[in-house]
Amino acid sequence: MPTTVLAAGDHFVLPHLLERELRAAAPPGTELDVRRLLLPWPHTPFGKVAEVDEASGGEEEMIEALRGARICLTQMGPLTARVLAACPDLELFCVSRGGPVNADLEAATRHGVAVCHAPGRNAVATAEHALALILAAARGIADVHTDLKRGVWRGDYYDYTRCGVEIDGSVVGLVGFGAIGSRVARILHAMGATVLVHDPYVRPEAVGDIARLVSLDELLSRSRIVSLHARVTDETRGMIDRARIGAMPRGAVLVNCARGALADYDAVCDALDSGHLAAAGFDVFPVEPVPAGSRLLSTPGIVLTPHIAGASREVAHKAARIVAAEAARFLRGEPPAHCANPEALAGRHRR
Fold first, then answer.
1. Does the predicted TM-score (pTM) go above 0.85?
2. Each residue of 233-268: b (16+ CB within 10 Å) or e?
3. Which one is catalytic: 111, 183, 244, 259?
4. 347, pLDDT greater than 80
């Protein structure tokens, strides 16, 4: 009897990519009945669905599509308590994202549904985008681009006080040294920067000779450029506050491709207006989309991109490949590699 699988993709991680990778990874001879569901993200912004965050589509849509399915491969599909209660055949829910924020892990564990995710899927893309924002902010590319598009040739950008800074020879501080931060560190080191890292979960030997582990206070006080690569936790939420921005050297640059909740953006705008910060680059924001009238849209010196650091075609393929591999392990009776609630596996066996 074939195993029923829902490939609930969207306009980035397409349903056919999920199905193709699953069929390639499945054990030989496996019969699969794959249903496809196209969720509206990113054409429609993700949001909260019942008790889960950053989801696309609705509970009714998922319940209908999941009927009889044992496995679901998705990026944004909501896995809520209501969906779980209505879909008793579901055993594996694979989220092709770094973290399964669109899944209710407690409810999934109660129902014996293992929730897997795809750590590192966008590490390369996000690291490259962070570097792009660092360079664009440090050299004032966004402002001169806007001027030139309006037909204004600004020769005064050669004024000493308006010139940007080079990476080579600069001290660059990275807050976080995970899959993304470590890649950014290697690139910056190769470009000639002195790289400082703050990450309480990393041992000194892990950074090798490309960087030096320091306290957050030392990093902020010494770095000409600071780039954020930490997860949002109770300890990191709002960590780059007004006082810590004030501790940065005058003329410093702040870049954030991690999460908007890490920094006080009003304080950043004040620091830019006063000249304490020279520039900033942001791909993530406290509220997304950025509200009309936000100071971020009018404060000079800020390079903005709409949460697209992880948007590359390679990421879509990697994401589909990682979750397909988890489904293949499940079909072979092997434990998952990236399970967010491993206790659910024991709960399923007890049922």
1. yes
2. eeebeebbeeebbeebbeebbbbbbbbbbbbbbebb
3. 259
4. no
